[in-house]
Amino acid sequence: METSKKKTADSKFNLRREEIPPEFHDPFIIRGYRRPYLSFKDCLKSSVVFSCNESFNILSHFFSFLFFITIFISYFKTELDITDVKTWPLALNVIGNIGFSFMSTTAHTLNSMSIEARHKCFYLDYAAISIYTYCSGQATFYYSRALFSEKEFFKNSYYFNIGAMFISIMSTLLNCLSRRKWHSSKYVIRTMAYVTAYVWNCVPYIYRLMICNNPLDCNKSGLYLSLLSALTLLGAGVLNITKFPERFYPGKFDCCGQSHNLMHVLVTLGCFFQLEFVKHEMLRGISQGFNYESSLHLTIFTVFVSLLIAAVVPANDDKDINYKKK
Ligand SMILES: [Zn+2]
């Protein structure tokens, strides 16, 4: 009885690379694949089958999702007042974290339903990450820029916001298209899109530290949080491009410890440090020239366009129909 149950589980959740179509392959991962065209219920079930190579990815970002909800509650239950407009960039930053963790959990759970579902799931995942990078950029700009700069770029949020919006929308578009073309460099494209957003988001803080001439702007007490965030996110990017360790030890880290698993953990940590950094900077005192309401329409536009791109970039594939007929 036990043996037949295990056989059924293995035939659904623990296939070898050569047993499934190439569209469902992950680089250097040999076994633990789910059978393509699984039902919704079986996809959910696979999250707790630890011989499956997606379980860790599903559970790690599901725990991140719960973690960031807890952070949101802990920030706004007693410590901060959500009706105060000065806390809105921070609130949107945490909502961005919750959104991308949820979307990543969904994408990793449902990506074996079909080739089309696999593409669409990850399109939405990319859109959610791009929306998050836009939201975290807003928080960094409003809380960590120089308060007394004469430069128009730092006095007026318009220029920074337009740049952040453009990067966010282009990231979604390029990442979605990288699933259909540019196959040999897709991981570099995806990583570099988010590195560009990250660098753009750091500009206000770096500039402030370079030109500071008053105690408020010269306050570097949050620098260690910013560096911790940069280092962990850099580590995540390097793993995503190099595919370490599975590239060098094929078959050893299929179900636990592969680069994507480690990347999920590092991304959650990096985003947590980034959140703590912007909260720390917010408490520095930012009352001067604070007009976040004027940026809200661009935030809504960025969210709308990113989701629209994920919806309209084609995901259908003739191979889906052929495989189903087999
Ligand atoms: Zn992932």
TrEMBL record:
<keyword id="KW-0812">Transmembrane</keyword>
<keyword id="KW-0675">Receptor</keyword>
<keyword id="KW-1133">Transmembrane helix</keyword>
<feature type="transmembrane region" description="Helical">
    <location>
        <begin position="158"/>
        <end position="177"/>
    </location>
</feature>
<feature type="transmembrane region" description="Helical">
    <location>
        <begin position="298"/>
        <end position="316"/>
    </location>
</feature>
<feature type="transmembrane region" description="Helical">
    <location>
        <begin position="56"/>
        <end position="76"/>
    </location>
</feature>
<feature type="transmembrane region" description="Helical">
    <location>
        <begin position="262"/>
        <end position="278"/>
    </location>
</feature>
<feature type="transmembrane region" description="Helical">
    <location>
        <begin position="189"/>
        <end position="210"/>
    </location>
</feature>
<feature type="transmembrane region" description="Helical">
    <location>
        <begin position="122"/>
        <end position="143"/>
    </location>
</feature>
<dbReference type="InterPro" id="IPR004254">
    <property type="entry name" value="AdipoR/HlyIII-related"/>
</dbReference>
<keyword id="KW-0472">Membrane</keyword>
<comment type="similarity">
    <text>Belongs to the ADIPOR family.</text>
</comment>
<feature type="transmembrane region" description="Helical">
    <location>
        <begin position="222"/>
        <end position="241"/>
    </location>
</feature>
<dbReference type="Pfam" id="PF03006">
    <property type="entry name" value="HlyIII"/>
</dbReference>
<protein>
    <submittedName>
        <fullName>Membrane progestin receptor gamma</fullName>
    </submittedName>
</protein>
<feature type="transmembrane region" description="Helical">
    <location>
        <begin position="88"/>
        <end position="110"/>
    </location>
</feature>
